Amino acid sequence: MLLTNNNRSKAYLQNLINNNFMPSKIIFMNNNHTTLVEHTENDKLISKYTNQIFIRKLDDLDISFDEKEHVLKTIQNYNIEFVEINNSDVNSQEVVDEVASIKDEYIVYSGPSSSILKKEILSKKKKFIHVHPGWLPKFRGSTTIYYSMLLKYKIGCSVIFLEEGIDKGPVLHKQEYKISEKGIDFDYLLDPLVRVKTLIEFFKIGVIKPMKQNDDQDETTFYIIHPVLKHLSIINYNNE
Amino acid sequence: MVIWLIGMSASGKTTIGKKIFEKLKDSNEKWVFLDGDVFRNILGEDLGHSIEDRRKNAYRISKFCEFLNLQNINVIASVLSIFHDNQKYNKENIPDYKEIFLDVKFDNLLRRDNKELYKKALDGNIKNVVGVDIKFVPPFSPDLIIDNNSENPDYQKMVQKICDDLNIKFNNSYIYTEKNLLNFPNTYQYSKYQGKDFFELFKKNRKKNLDFLKIRLEKLNSKRNDNFELNNINNYKNDKELNLKEYLIYLYNLNNNELKNQKKTIEVLIKRFEVSKKLFTKYDLKNIKKLSSKFNELLIYPLFSLVLQKYYNNANNQQKLVFLNTILKVNDIISSMVSDLIFSEEVYYSIEAINGELKIMGEYI
């Protein structure tokens, strides 16, 4: 696994382990100078000063993770082999070298939001497994959960191999979800949990059968959603 | 104001306190969230959980709230609070003190007992647990009682009820245009959810800027009699370069069928804009990559918005969202720098761009 300490990585790691999919090695990209976006000032204070746990749970899918548990703690709790790189840039030379040096062919990717893997790291003969929170090829790009909701589609998730074009790599597995729980946080709860649910289902199938994406005229690349559309999406969803 | 949230362990004090704070922190008032457990720790964990120590801690929190309140800093305090004399002290000493009791049945507390606090106490493994060996008596006269027994509480409604019932006033503002976005671009990543009121803030912001621009246009027009017709320019490009302002004027004058032929270029321009949040004066014709570092030709922004609005009107639902998303961001830029618009053309087309956007948004909100 190639990951950084964000909610998605926490959800991936904790649930993969719970389902007996133990990573053989983890490349952990750390940058102590980076503030994690998912933590509000209060969350940080409470995390720091108390032993409180933060369970993020999606009852509809019966899946959860503890947001307070740092990925390094999980890694150490389960004695997983890991290497820590003090750089959160996935295209940095340190990360590229580390990726090149590992034996495994398949790497589950959970890097910082909006990072794009460039030519060099993609040329290291590894297959990066990524879960995109959108039904491909219809929903490419960023914050597609919100756009799916706005267009009254179910939430889709696609497991793909990362390639150079954004979300254009071959598809390994796709799943759709109809979530009925209201008032949930899309960014920090729904997004990581639907992704990990899809990843686990893909692993359970146990077969890697890449399918080239059929581009059609219907394909659209979405960009980070504007707050007005984000509000529209959440309010429509909660009122449904 | 001090909002004092009282409830037993696992009653939802921290969660609800945080939700209230999330709603109020962007208002023009100052708010802090104070968690009883965090407060203990800040002071060095010198107190335990015996009744005497709990009483000391409760008074420390009260005094601290009093101190903050005196400096016009509002507090949301999540406190277990078992002492009625302490609650009485608060009422007598803290002006605008509001007490909320979170009422949760003990069975439900047991069910939510993630920390296994109650289980350990009931098994006799730990002492000084309120609800087991320390009796909890609900507050005598809370301002509000919240039933938090539901398995799936609707926090949004709960927070709204608290704000309504306690008459908490908050003056929010639309935060996305407070700084000049050409100097301080906004990535819009993980933007906060601010509730239904957000649309009103958005509309209010746009209308305020429209009024400002209209007054400015009147003043400018009184000096010169401008004609705002944009003449059709067909020489927007040479062999290598695309001049963005002229290209946008060209597109602005095209009919819908002719616009279709330019859609690919517009899609790449949207992509470029979404990455840099700027529009540059010149792009290379082949790959639409910027050829100039100049991004402050201000007429380009309203023109881009207006051209995207033309595309929006002829797009399918999926594509409409892509166009609208960028229109909103471009118009945020315009709104963030209305005072920098000094030429009548810039002002006139900015008014057009905001009016057009509000008309589109009327379909949604």
How would the blueprint of this fold be written?
The complex is a heterodimer of chains A (240) and B (365).
Chain A: E1 2-4, H1 7-18, E2 26-29, H2 41-49, E3 55-58, E4 63-66, H3 71-77, E5 82-85, H4 93-101, E6 106-110, H5 119-122, E7 127-132, E8 139-141, H6 144-150, E9 155-161, E10 171-177, H7 186-205, E11 220-222, H8 227-239
Parallel strand pairs in A: 1-2, 1-6, 2-5, 6-7, 8-11
Antiparallel strand pairs in A: 3-4, 7-9, 9-10
Chain B: E1 2-6, H1 13-24, E2 30-35, H2 36-42, H3 51-70, E3 73-79, H4 84-93, E4 97-103, H5 106-111, H6 117-122, E5 144-147, H7 155-165, H8 198-223, E6 241-243, H9 244-252, H10 256-260, H11 263-276, E7 282-284, H12 300-313, H13 317-336, H14 344-361
Parallel strand pairs in B: 1-3, 1-4, 2-3, 4-5
Antiparallel strand pairs in B: 6-7
Helix pairs in contact in B: 1-7, 3-4, 8-14, 9-12, 12-13, 12-14, 13-14
How many β-strand runs of chain B? 7
Which stretches of chain A of 5+ consecutive residues score pLDDT under 50?
33-38
**Helicity of chain B, in percent?**
40-55%
User: What class do helices, strands and sheet pairing of chain B give?
Assistant: alpha/beta
Q: Uncertain regions of chain B: pLDDT < 50 for 5+ in a row?
A: none
Q: Which geometry of chain B do the CA atoms define?
A: elongated
Describe the structure.
Chain A is of the alpha/beta class. Helices cover 34% and strands 21% of the residues of chain A. Chain A has helices at residues 7-18, 41-49, 71-77, 93-101, 119-122, 144-150, 186-205, 227-239, and strands at 2-4, 26-29, 55-58, 63-66, 82-85, 106-110, 127-132, 139-141, 155-161, 171-177, 220-222. A 7-stranded mixed β-sheet of chain A has the order 5-2-1-6-7-9-10, sandwiched between helices. Chain A has a two-stranded antiparallel ribbon with strand order 3-4. Chain A has a two-stranded parallel ribbon with strand order 8-11. Residues 33-38 of chain A have low confidence and may be disordered. Chain B has helices at 13-24, 36-42, 51-70, 84-93, 106-111, 117-122, 155-165, 198-223, 244-252, 256-260, 263-276, 300-313, 317-336, 344-361; strands at 2-6, 30-35, 73-79, 97-103, 144-147, 241-243, 282-284. Chain B has a 5-stranded parallel β-sheet with strand order 2-3-1-4-5, with helices on both faces. Chain B is elongated, with a radius of gyration of 29 Å. Chain B is an alpha/beta fold. Chain A binds chain B through residues 37-38, 40, 42-43, 45-46, 49-53, 55, 59, 113-114, 138, 147, 150-151, 181-183, 185, 187, 218, 220-232, 234-235, 238, and chain B through 14, 18, 21-22, 33, 35, 37-38, 41-42, 114-115, 152, 154-156, 176, 187-194, 196, 198-199, 202, 270-271, 274, 317-319, 321-322, 324-326, 328-329, 332, 361, 364-365.
